[in-house]
Amino acid sequence: MGLEEERKKVTFCVENLTRFLYAQILPDVSFERIRELKDKILKIPDLNYTLERYHDTREDALNRGIRQGLAMRAIFQKENCTESERRMVMGFFPEITAAVLQYDFFMPAFNLQASEEQKAQYKEKLDNLEIIGCYAQTELGHGSNVRGIETQAIYDNQRDEFIMNSPTVTSHKWWIGGLGVSCSHALVVAKLIMNQQDMGPHTFFVPIRDMRTHEPLPGITVGDIGPKMGNPCADNGFLRFDNYRVPKSVMLTRFARINDKGEYEILDPNALKVLYSSLVRARVNLSRDAWHYPTIAATIAIRYSLVREQFPDPENPQRERKLLDYQIQRSKLFTVLAKIYAIVFVRAVLTEKYNESERRMKNMDGSLLGELHALSSLCKGFITASAIECIEVCRRCCGGHGYSMYSGIPHLYASYLPSATYDGDNSILILQSARYMTNIIKKIHKGEPIPDKYVFLANPIPHLSGDQNPASPSFHQACFQAISYVSLNNLAKREAQFLKNGMKKEKIWTEILQIEGIEAAETFFHTSVHEDFIKGLSLITDPNAKQAIEYLRQIYAITQLDKYAGILINLGASPNVIDKMKDVLLEAFDKTRDNAIGLIEAFEKPDEMLCSVLGKRDGNVYESMLFAAKHLNPINKSSVYPGIQKYLRPKL
Amino acid sequence: MGLEEERKKVTFCVENLTRFLYAQILPDVSFERIRELKDKILKIPDLNYTLERYHDTREDALNRGIRQGLAMRAIFQKENCTESERRMVMGFFPEITAAVLQYDFFMPAFNLQASEEQKAQYKEKLDNLEIIGCYAQTELGHGSNVRGIETQAIYDNQRDEFIMNSPTVTSHKWWIGGLGVSCSHALVVAKLIMNQQDMGPHTFFVPIRDMRTHEPLPGITVGDIGPKMGNPCADNGFLRFDNYRVPKSVMLTRFARINDKGEYEILDPNALKVLYSSLVRARVNLSRDAWHYPTIAATIAIRYSLVREQFPDPENPQRERKLLDYQIQRSKLFTVLAKIYAIVFVRAVLTEKYNESERRMKNMDGSLLGELHALSSLCKGFITASAIECIEVCRRCCGGHGYSMYSGIPHLYASYLPSATYDGDNSILILQSARYMTNIIKKIHKGEPIPDKYVFLANPIPHLSGDQNPASPSFHQACFQAISYVSLNNLAKREAQFLKNGMKKEKIWTEILQIEGIEAAETFFHTSVHEDFIKGLSLITDPNAKQAIEYLRQIYAITQLDKYAGILINLGASPNVIDKMKDVLLEAFDKTRDNAIGLIEAFEKPDEMLCSVLGKRDGNVYESMLFAAKHLNPINKSSVYPGIQKYLRPKL
Fold this sequence. Notes:
The structure is a homodimer.
Chain A: H1 3-8, H2 14-25, H3 31-42, H4 58-79, H5 83-92, H6 98-113, H7 116-127, E1 133-136, E2 152-156, E3 161-165, E4 173-176, E5 185-194, E6 197-207, E7 220-224, E8 237-241, E9 244-247, E10 256-258, E11 264-266, H8 271-288, H9 292-305, E12 309-313, E13 316-322, H10 327-361, H11 369-397, H12 410-416, H13 426-446, H14 473-500, H15 505-512, H16 514-538, H17 543-561, H18 565-570, H19 575-592, H20 596-601, H21 607-610, H22 621-632, H23 642-648
Parallel strand pairs in A: 1-5, 2-5
Antiparallel strand pairs in A: 2-3, 3-9, 4-8, 5-6, 7-8, 10-11, 12-13
Helix pairs in contact in A: 3-5, 6-8, 8-10, 8-11, 9-10, 9-11, 10-11, 10-16, 10-17, 10-19, 11-12, 11-13, 13-14, 13-16, 14-16, 14-17, 15-16, 16-17, 17-19
């Protein structure tokens, strides 16, 4: 049975689900506009992928990235794209390039810290890539810890200039995206030093390469840091300053400046609040974008599992069974599917909260920032890790063939992987949230107000011994809340004990409570995600689609609750209901079998984006594999591989 | 504090531990011989790695693999290596090449199935790589299921020849290691067809390429299947036969032949037993070799964590803390360390069992095969998966720098990854073991004898309510046994129920009990590993080393038991002892802090094998990174990257 027949089994209208999903994912771009842009993108060769990319040398990949950046600029300008549309176009082909970093990362950072005059001065040149900038914060020796940055910008009041210096090996700027070969300018985070006094980190927009020749300027050592596990198109670079002199005007002066008298002057006391808000933005975006890669991987794996057959069917020994008819394959792939839907629903809630915070920030009201920072750090930590895992599960679900680059999954995995580390190592971020949560517990004890998401912690612990419907959203939510309640209260109690014993807070949170902190934060994370899932479900109008996604909710809830079974029983859940939840789970896997292809194809990832021999819409797996190996693979160019003639045969 | 000072803190003699470990790992090679071979290898450039490998194109990698194969042949011949020594040399630089496959995979398969005459005919040519063979079983459409193989060898009794054919797209041989560009011959598994009758799969040793020109022979289509996630040196290939005629002598005839009258004749009825034994051998080897890659990764990550500093030390704010002084880093890396030691101890037990089985097989006594098959499948499934995870944990523990190829960990991960899939997909193998275990339960019910490892299942369920020492090996073992007891008995009961309801066994094990089967098998796996760990510990004579590794045992036991906390309480463990186990765990992490470098350096992985800027013995992390980026990275060859001139600047 081919994929077309499989599609006929789906119980809901896939196109309607697509509309619903994109209303969640991109609420400020109309569905018609999404389709229009997509159609246009698919006609621009430099924006599309072909299987040949898997043969790229690093140089090929860098060149492809440059051409892709130029094609992006063209469509942005021609279509006059809004910021949301730009992010959609960039997300469409999820590869990091200097141009993507320019639009998505550098320009927001620049615009945040530049004065109005500075913004006006550079806007056009940045927008059309005439100036390519990079955001140079991380150093060889310091990543997460901004205060440890060593690069110096020494103010010379005689000449009204800065002298930039990299005083140590560890002070080399490192990992800076776009710096390696592309950028002309860098937004450098450096310690401002005035009269031998360290004024703390500031940002300086300095030229790096000659605008005419692209040669590095005197006093600058710059280059690419070398090959990475993925993201070959990205030119992550290093940078060293050696008494490099720049005019005073390179300092970004929205928040502070050195005035004409050579004195340091604060212009806007909201600097910390605004920078904090930009940090939150980055983490919100990483959580929001996490649906993308696993959706591509799952499209490939689910289609392949409906084509690939293995071992005779016990009911019909003449035929072989499809992979998706094995329970273990279902359990793996449908758990991925459930997580993808969970991420989409979390995305919608996070976006709403973020937009509200942005509205308040217009009046410099940072009242939502604390909550949003904790929530986005928590989500970034767990969601990116979960998305990485989902991609790898999908790859292994394609068996041996998933290891071929042509399968399309390895490069997704390798390129998405660093999201667990950049913009804050996941463990560090989750621990920040855990500490926020113990403060919530303290506020509850003091009777102070707390954000909505945490109100259940102020109520009595949910009773699990009453109505126990093993399939119901409300019972599952009560379970999550009860577990989270116990874990967070324990954590707060343990912290209080250690503080009482005279231990310093920093010591507690580096040496004693890190493991428990992460475990407790995870219980709250699931409680929050499951709440968002229920909310998302309530918005679906088609009853068949709703039912199909309700099974995914059950899968999400029960697979997560499983590891807390012991605690749940201790909290009053009957062992019987825990066993019954397992039956509910198995039934949810079975019920999802025929809808799986509709649930994943609703995301409408086109073949060009999958770039996979295993996942094409037409299901022509084996012909595609054979074609790629025989006709595209450069190793087969000559009938005898040259290295055999050169190295092997003379030695025989 | 540099690494040398860290080394002084170790409480035991590292060299003595090294001797102990290699006595476990390679019991039949003396320690002096291991060191001697190692020293010699380190002097042969073609056998050693340099950072330049991370810039290799696929072609560079293939050529490197060829040269490495020739260098291996030279040292094997010069040193007159035993099989164990060969495996040691090959394991030293863990990269799959055609030559490694020749010695480690092809020759055992060939020798197993060839007649004495055939063996004698080819021995010398195979040994010196004059003939390079490959084992061609897997097809595009069939991997795990050998019975589904479609390639045909049709016996033509007129001409006393076979006509080899690949009748479908899916019947292309695929993934065959060494076939892509290197091999001259292939050991092809094909259906033997005589008088239109399918005689089942047989093996045929057929020439593929011209021995003089290396050109593919007429009737053969052969090539490399394309780029993979890792293992770029390996030339996995495809092969298609088109009425390819070969003489009758190509059939391997240890077990059966076509006699002079053109009749099929069985020569040795032990074929199945012997083939089964070779399957077991492959799985035993995969489990045994699994210590290797994570040991390299952990050497890198632990050294780096003793160099890299991050955030000020709360006790001494002028200094920064080393990564290894964070609880979360300890918990991650020491759990890896515990798993590495567990694999080593399992390896020793598995080797003993395997050798005993081989001794019996000499008299065609296959009485140990069933048990060994179940145990090796179980171990292969869980241990390779666990080793993969360990490598990735180590990579993430290196923060952002772990993503650089120069860190040395990404290529390990990518190259070891397929071990989860080849020689049997892990899920499938574990399910085979689960089914074996339900049969053990049935045997117990019938009072039949069972292997030692399972005897605890025949005894009463261990009491957990008596002596509960949260740190003791015997209490931990009782916990594992109790969990395993309950899980396996439940599984057997569930299977019996479904059988009673008239369901077919094949249906039960594909649609109903796969998830529970894997979960139950995992509980037995941990019970077995922990038993082997205790046994291994008992062999250590140095009390300080023993204590250090006892902490690793605690870490292994408690991190694994953690997820069963609920069940343990239901089985009579007090909630209090479960909490205390957490304290024991945290203490074990702390106690391992100063010994970690000794525990990992005892494996003596030299810098040449690590090929890492982060993990060098001298701890010169940052200088090495800078050197590699500045002086080795080919992207920095010219001061302006050519692609910028070619693509970007004309469009500005």
